[in-house]
Amino acid sequence: MSTAVLIGFLVAAAVLAWWAPPPLSRLEPRSSPLPGWVGKAWGWVAKRWSGPRKVNRAVVRELPETLDLLAVCLEAGAPMTNAIATVAAVSQPATAAILHGIDAQLQVGRDPQDAWGSLADHPDWGPPARDAARSARSGTSLVECLRVHADEARRRRREQETKRARSVGVKSVQPLALCFLPAFVLIGVVPLVASLLGTFTGR
Fold first, then answer.
1. Which residues does 114 contact at the CB level (< 8 Å), separation at least 6?
2. How many CA atoms lie within 13 A of 125 on its CB side?
3. Which domain of life is it from (predicted)?
4. In this predicted model, what pLDDT tens digit does every residue of 27-76 receive, in sequence order?
5. What's the pTM value of the predicted model, to 2 decimals?
6. Which of 16, 83, 132, 199 is the most exposed place for a label (fewest CB within 10 A)?
7. HSE of 1 in the Cβ direction (CA atoms, 13 Å)?
8. Where exactly are the structural domains of the chain?
C-alpha cells in the first residue's frame, strides 16, 4: 500500500507542478517589441476611451443629489442662475462642469430654453434638461419635475450598482476555483489514485 500512496503523491505533485504559475523570472518586465510610437498611441487611445467612462459614472452617481439640491434652491426662491451656481460650487468636478456650462450660457444672455436644450441629448442629464427647457418656455415650476427625475436617477443608480456587484461575483469564481484546486488534488485525487493502485497491485 505504501508504494501506491507514494505513486499517488507523485501524481499529485505532477498535477500541481503543471498548474503552478510561472517562476518570477518569467514575470520580469521585457522590452516591448512594438515601436515606441505604437505604445504611446495605444496609451493615448486607452486614456481617451476610459476617461469618458469614468466621467459618466461620476455624473450618474451624483445626479440624484444634484437634482435634489437644485429643487431645494428653486423652492427657496432663488433664481435659476443663482441655484445653478450654488449647486455647482458644492458639486464634484464632473457635475460642476455641466452646471458651469449651463450657467455660462445664461450669464451671457442666452435664452434658458436654448441653454438647457444644449443638454437634451446628454445620456443622463437629457430628461431633466428637456423638462427645464419646457419650464423655461411655459413658465411653470420645475421643482416637482426635478424631484421626480432625482428619484428616477436614484433608481437607475441602484440598478447599475447591483449589476456591477453581480458581475464581480461571477468574475471571482475562477480565482477561487484555482485557490481550492491544490486542496482538492491532495484530499480528493491522491487517496483515490492510491486506492486504485493498491487494488490493482494487490498491496
1. 105, 133
2. 27
3. Bacteria
4. 444 544 445 554 454 454 444 444 455 567 888 899 999 999 999 999 99
5. 0.58
6. 199
7. 3
8. 55-156
